[in-house]
Every structure is written in structure tokens, then in C-alpha cells.
Amino acid sequence: MDLRQRFLHHLAPTTFSPLALEFVRAEGVYLFDPQGKPHMDLISGIGVANLGHSHPEIVAAVQQQAAQHMHLMVYGEYAQLPQVAYAEALLAALPDPIDQIYWGNSGAEAVDGALKLAKRATGRTEILSFHGSYHGSTTGPLSAMGNECMKSAYRPLVPGHRILPFNGTEVLDAIGPHTAAVLVEAIQSESGYIPADWEWLRQLEARCRAAGALLIVDEIQTGFGRSGEAFAFTASGITPDVVCLAKALGGGMPLGAFAAGRAFMSTLAEFPMLGHLTTFGGHPVSCAAGLAAWNILERERFALRAPVLEAHFRRGLSAHSAVQEIRGRGALLAVVLDSFERVLNVQQHLIAAGYLTDWFLFENRALRLAPPLTLTDDQAEQAVQAIRLALDQTTSNQQLATRS
Question: pTM (2 decimals)?
């Protein structure tokens, strides 16, 4: 039984039609299959490998920390330098009054913790979020998800959630004395990289302040340079009460976190004591990897690469007859085509040519492009030409099918 067969036999499926591609090595912007063929990663493992794969400084940080110690005790009990040092670095880049981090393992855990925090800090239970939003698949984040197709099989979910139009004014009237928090993405990821309107975000912040509700910003996929800023929300000028982080946070290792002010965070420590717990949250190896990645991102100013990469793809793809629209900001782009079938055909052509792309959970007519920020100008142009060729090939195939 080969590896693909073993994969299909032993691992629980997320779908009955996985790509099931096999890779044995990754370096820079490339994944290598068992035959040594390189595949350019244009999705960064869905927003995780912002600095590419196997960056030597990150690998060295992992090796050094693993040699010193790995898991010692549940999060929050022992003082561990990797957790503290990384928290200090991130908090220096986040706005006041955010001054504490709660470490977890994933984005879903970060959102779950943030929702618990909002209920404790406000004494309220209502959570407002938006159509088309994605915050994770565990029960709490699923309750805030803005897609009924993904939720319906798991109802009843957590009560007290209301889903409202993204970038719409309805939420401004909905925030009231029962609202614990509004949960929003600065750029909606799984709906095809739809940016939040900056003025709308500012109005949302003002309404939350007036009503005593918390504003939680989900930066899980959009953070760490992807939008052209360290965190996408900063372009709007707002100051969230809580920020959720994951994906690129760990530099390729599993890591999640939510960050907030000390007064809010303190509510999780009493009545009951240990009211929010995690065993592996802030794992020292993950924190060491994440801190190394953060230092590289800041030192090399890789966030400035995001608009440069955006320009390459917009310039090379916008005028193609098969492209209806390109949405997003920076290195978060959705190339909208005419059908899911076309997206899948383009994706398969690109896989055969050695390029990895994807689609979106809630916008299956769009091709996902979220390349590493380390992608060079030459590599970006190679990717553009490969995508154009795949679009040409699928257009020709559709024309032949129509004629026959």
C-alpha cells in the first residue's frame, strides 16, 4: 500500500476528494515531491508560511529550543522565556491598551478564548458577527461563522449569536446593552478576501465603545505582513479591545493567541480560578519559532513586499478575459472566474505545471493566491505566466466542449 492509499485509509477525511499530493521536502517558496519536482507554493499552507518554508533562522530556533526543553507544564504556571519574549515583541507592535497575551494552539482556540473573555469582561452574552465570516470550526467559532451551510448540520450551537451583513450599517443599530462583543475580520478570508471598509470599522469601534461592548478583530489569516501592514486592522486606525492571532504566528509551528488589556484578561483568573486553560498553548518550541519569524519579518520589512506582489498579480491577470475581478489586499488575492468548475480546472492545470493554489470555502468561483512574502519578482512573474497559461487552456477546453 503506497503512502496515498495509507493516507486515505488511516486518516479521517475532511472531504472524499482530497488533493492527496505527496511532498517530502520544502524550502523557500517550493514544495518538492518524491521525484524531486518543485511546486511553487502560492497559498503558503493557507497563510501560515509567510516567510516560506524551512527558513534557516526559524529551523535553528526550533532545534535550539527543542534541545533545551519542550513541554514543561500547562500554560500560565511556569515562567518560560520563549513565551515571555515573544509576547513582549508582539505587544510592542499592538496598540495600547493591549498589554497581555493568552497563548493557545490554533486560530479556533484563539477565537473561543476571546469569546469567553468578552462574556466575562462585560457580563453579557450576545455576540455579533457577519455573513461570510470564518473564525474556525470548533463549536464556539462555528456559532459565530457567517455561513449557514457549514453550520446547519451541527445545530443547536451556542446561543446568543447574531449574524449581520458585512460592511453594512445594520450592526451599528444592533449593538446594544446585551452585546458582549462584535467579532470581525479586517479582511474576510473565506469569502474571497473582501476587505472591511475602513470608515465602517471606525464606526463599529465607536458604537462598541458607546455601548460598552468589546470589539474583537480576527487577524488569524490576515496578520503578519500579508496586507502590507503587520496587522491588517492598523490601516483603518482602529484600536480593537481583543486581537486574535494564529497561522503565521508560529512561523510554521502550531500556535494561536488572543491579546487584550490587563483588566479584561484578569477576569479569566478568578470566579472561577483557572476559568480558561490550555495544556499545550504557547508551546516553547512554537513560541521560539514564532519569535524567530517575527524578528525576520520586522528586520527585513517583509510587509512591504505584500503590495509589490499584489501589483504583479493584478497587472498580469486583471486583463485576462477569463478573470471577472481580483479582490483583496497585498498578498491576499482572490481571482474571480466564472464557475467552480473553471477554478478546479485551473487548479489542476497549475498542479501539473508545478504551482499550488486553492479556492475558498464560501466563494468557490475564486482562485486563492496568498504566496509567501519571500516570493521574488521573477518568481511572481513566473507564477503570473503559469496562471495565464492555465486560464488559456481552460478557455480553449470550454470552447471545444461548447462546439462539440
Answer: 0.96
DSSP 303: G
Four-residue CA torsion sign, 249, 253, 256, 260 = negative
C-alpha cell at 106: 490554533
Written out in words, the top-level CATH class of the domain with range 3-54+301-403 is alpha beta
- pLDDT tens series, the chain, 404 aa: 799 899 999 999 999 989 999 999 999 999 999 999 999 999 999 999 999 999 999 999 999 999 999 999 999 999 999 999 999 999 999 999 999 999 999 999 999 999 999 999 999 999 999 999 999 999 999 999 999 999 999 999 999 999 999 999 999 999 999 999 999 999 999 999 999 999 999 999 999 999 999 999 999 999 999 999 999 999 999 999 999 999 999 999 999 999 999 999 999 999 999 989 999 999 999 999 999 999 999 999 999 999 999 999 999 999 999 999 999 999 999 999 999 999 999 999 999 999 999 999 999 999 999 999 999 999 999 999 999 999 999 986 766 555 55
Q: Tell me how many degrees the CA angle 301-306-311 measures, rounded to the nearest 5.
A: 135
Q: What are phi and psi of 371, to 5 degrees?
A: -70, 160
Q: Which CATH number fits domain 56-299: 3.40.50.1220, 3.30.1360.30, 3.40.640.10, 3.30.70.660?
A: 3.40.640.10
